[in-house]
Design goal:
- By secondary structure, the protein is an alpha+beta fold.
- It is built from five helices and three strands, in the order ααβββααα.
- It folds into two domains: about 80 residues, no CATH class; about 60 residues, no CATH class.
- A three-stranded antiparallel beta sheet has the order 1-2-3, with helices on both faces.
- Strand 2 and strand 3 form a beta hairpin.
- The longest helix is centred in the C-terminal third of the chain and has 15 residues.
- The N terminus is likely disordered.
Length: about 140
């Protein structure tokens, strides 16, 4: 079975709190390309208007944008020698969820998630590339 993203209708709304889909899917859902922070802010605003609790827009190598409660905060990417982008988005989302659940601010959780995703792309593979917490703290 194949499932494809499609543009959200105006009727699509409700109280939801989650980071959201990846950059490509986000562009499909909003019907607009997301290539820079300005585009990301527009997409985040559109999702927030639909009563989505918070939105995190990841922009591949650029950075992330955290939008919640009327505020949009850019979170710079860390500089690494990337060798394999496999699972970077999954690592980012997992790290964000874990750190946010621990009670850290959304921005701090996104910064932590950027570090985790940055470490993942320095290694080959998927699950084997995920760092241990001690690797991130170091």
């Amino acid at each position: 079975m194949s499932v494809r993203a499609r543009r959200l209708s105006a009727a699509t709304s409700g109280p939801v709190s989650r980071p959201g889909p990846a950059q490509t899917e986000r562009a499909i859902l909003t019907g607009k390309p997301i290539e820079n922070l300005r585009d990301a802010e527009g997409a985040a605003r559109e999702f927030r208007e639909r009563a989505i609790g918070f939105v995190v827009v990841t922009l591949r190598r650029l950075e992330a944008l955290v939008a919640a409660a009327g505020e949009a905060l850019p979170v710079p990417a860390i500089k690494v020698d990337a060798v394999d982008p496999t699972c970077a988005g999954n690592a980012f989302t997992a790290a964000l969820a874990i750190d946010f659940a621990k009670g850290h601010s959304l921005r701090d959780a996104a910064e932590w998630a950027n570090v985790v995703a940055g470490l993942v792309v320095t290694r080959i593979g998927a699950q084997a590339a995920f760092p241990m917490i001690a690797d991130v703290v170091a």
